[in-house]
Amino acid sequence: MQVIEKVNSPWLRALPDFGNSLAAHDETFAYGAIDAMFAHAYGICHVKDGELNEQGKAVHVDLARTFAILKRHAYKGYCSIEYDAPGDPYKPTTELVEQTIRFLS
What we know:
alpha+beta, two-stranded parallel ribbon
């Protein structure tokens, strides 16, 4: 965020990802990072409900909290659904689409 703010260009924006910060940091840092990214977001974000951390442990995304951050910043871009787990992706992706629609409504 420091680079984006220092460059101060309308052409340089953030791409919030619901899970990446949680996979690498604790909740306080992660949700603060998501908040900072949505302050500089434009056009697209990646919606996911979980991620594997560097130790291979699953971390869960608090979708209600994350969508509240998205709404607080009046984000108007696309929400791409990202599913990255073993197994059949169709049912979990459908469920994530349904949850996303519910949180955006």
